[in-house]
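thread: overnight batch results

M.L. [08:02]
morning all. the overnight job finished for the chain we discussed friday. pasting input first so we're all looking at the same thing
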Amino acid sequence: MILNTSPFILYSDGEGNIFEDTSLYVTGRSGWDAVPVDPEDWIELPTGGNLYELPGRKGIGIDVETGEMRLCEKGWAVAAFIPPAHTGLYMAAYETAQDAPTLPLFCYTAAGWHNDKFYVPAVRIEKDIRQECEGYDDELIQDGAANLLEAYPHNRLVKHLMENCCMTYTCPAARNFSLGRWECPVPTSPACNANCIGCISFQPQDETIVSTQDRLTFKPTAEEITEFTVPHLETAPFPLVSFGQGCEGEPLLMWETIRESIIEIRKHTQKGSININTNGSKPDAIKALCEAGLNSIRVSTNSAREKIYTPYYRPNNYVFEDLIESLKVARSYGAWTSINYFVFPGMTDSIEEYEALRKLIKETGLCMIQWRNFNIDPDWYLGKIGVTETGECMGVKQMMELIREEFPDLKFGYFNPSMERIKGNFEADFAH
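M.L. [08:03]
and the structure it wrote out:
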């Protein structure tokens, strides 16, 4: 349903209760600015979405009577977490007090209230249902995890994936693995060659935020990897195994083990797709993996511009140009290439970023953009990378439309596609 008016602003009483303030329409945030949101950009908060209160922050709204912007003084600002497969178009707009705590590593999409429903400015970018809430049955997941632990009693990686990722952190990929379907995560590297500001598995002791999960603490062997990935590829619907997960460092630091695993996997099965999620820092390693049989690569980046990338990733012994080279190398071997593109409204949709992204797509022959919500405190992020002006912006939706128009073969989505999607009808809803 398309709204013909803006939703009302939400606020929290600090006790976990959320209310609407009908004297203010909600605004969105683009870069540093609060802006009105086109009524057409609002959708109902999807199932699996959550609302957060933002302590030490007052929401910015548009006065229903005067049309002027002002603060909602009734309580703390509210933002939404929107579930996977959806991309937010605007962040929550608020004013931050001096003593406000840094927000944890989640996405903070604008949220409002209209006709007894919560609304968010977002688009569904992906038809695949692989991480929908309704698709997870806790009882089946517990049974599946227990069965895997029993089937692979000595496999440290299966133990890590089931006990930590699946049962402790409710990682969607690990839960799907416990259910024997779709994408199976394969973390391999306890070390990293970047020092990302928003790292979800490792934060310095003196930092104001904490990592959302603990990082892998051992180096798995090729035998451990092959032992459970081969049966998964053989039996799962639309199977995919993915190196490079949120609970590890950079998988290319373990490229020899990964190469050995791919060779071994392919001795036993030709089914499914083998993917790596990576920072793309080692083009030579990508070359070796493609020669071994790697089918797809997803390179993460917060920007197509080196000057925005480097202060966020803080790379050790590699440079931004290595990412571009890795994408080119993978493409030259016929591998599917994606970027895991962290969307930050007001930065991602700036004219400068748009031009840089166009250049990246042309240079690398990119196959897909995964438009991912950036899980980070917006003020903290912009402060850390030293951005005070984000430049002229066009809006995330408009940018997506322009990119689609210019590059009709480039796919949009949120997840790594299975081989069936890569080779067949990409737009089909394969996970059903």
